[in-house]
Amino acid sequence: MIDLAIETSNLTKIYDQIVVVDHIEIYVKRGELVSILGPNGAGKTTLIKILTTVLKPDEGTALINGIDVLKEASAIKSIIGTVPQDYVFYEELSAEENLIFFGSMHGFPKKELELEAKKILKRLGLANRKDKTRNFSGGMKRRLNIAIALIMKPDILFLDEPSAGLDPQAKHVVWDYIKELKKGGKTIILTTHDMYEAEMLSDRVLIVNNGKILAEGAPETLKEKYSQRNILEVVFKQNDKANEFKSVIEPNSFIKQVLIEDDKKVNVYFDGGIISFIKILQEKAIKDVTELESMSLRQTTLEDVFLHLTGRRLRS
Ligand code: ADP
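A: This is the predicted complex of the input protein with adenosine-5'-diphosphate.
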């Protein structure tokens, strides 16, 4: 048995002379849940399309369960489940009919499919809908996409932005289900631009930007490695105050980084907890509290890691 579910080397895709997947080296162990986290246009979908044999790379190799995507695409299709962003079902059929149709294409017996379809649809909150799927809301269609991938009992599940377009309640249904699948030992790769989703679900996160992997690791490890534990977020009412604040506090040794966003917002990354926080206040950098829009102390998130690595926010 091969230990790695996915292994790539030098994987590259070029569109109109722009390198959108740039010499990517990744590995995913069996049973791991790995998120590919990056802003829109980072190359996440293109990478997933190469790994699921929808697109051919221009350079490099990708092995899925040890099988080369370029050489044995049909063997790979039988072991993976893909949940793309587009809808992949028949709108004239009900949810259950769709599942039975796609499952029988994979050769599973009808009786078994009926039971399994009911189970999956119940888990995704779709069991009560017996009507044609054309009437479904966008969020229900996205959940049906997931159900269709799962009816084929894939070894490896690829989810492209699984919670995009879902309302908060449906998001939680999907997240709980993904957690359950992970507990059951399934290998899962998902793309997201939602740092909370990546942080909450993943064993490991790959942070991508402009087709490159900037950093990878467990969410906690990334946060420790690329950012400081304490962040003071100060928002001024006027533009010129942010720079003044920055230049006053920056010389202190416990200040690790000061980033100004949108001219008015200052993110101060510092060591030393509350004692350093009090020192910052004693610096008299903030002369008049009426100059402040807001001030808060907060914990590091993966968003801070991204900001640290690229100088911009994930959603910008
Ligand atoms: P993400 O999933 O991270 O939002 P994509 O993989 O969809 O990013 O796209 C990465 C880049 O490749 C974007 O700049 C996008 O415009 C470009 N791109 C994607 N598909 C094509 C295509 N078929 N032809 C030309 N450019 C493309």
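The chain has a mean pLDDT of 92. The two ends are 43 Å apart (CA to CA).
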